[in-house]
Amino acid sequence: MPSGNKKQNPPAPVDYYQLPADLEYEGANLFLKFWVDRLLSAFFLVLLSPLFLILAAAIILEGVIFKDSRGPVFVGQRRISANKPFNLLKFRSYFIQDDALHEDKADTIWFINERRQTRVGKVLRKFYLDELPQLFNILRGEMSFVGHRPWPEKQNSEVLALGFQSRRFLKGGLCGPNQSLKGAKERPAHKFELEEMLLESYMSRSALGVVWSDARLVWETLKVVFRAEGL
Question: Which pTM was predicted?
Answer without folding.
Answer: 0.88
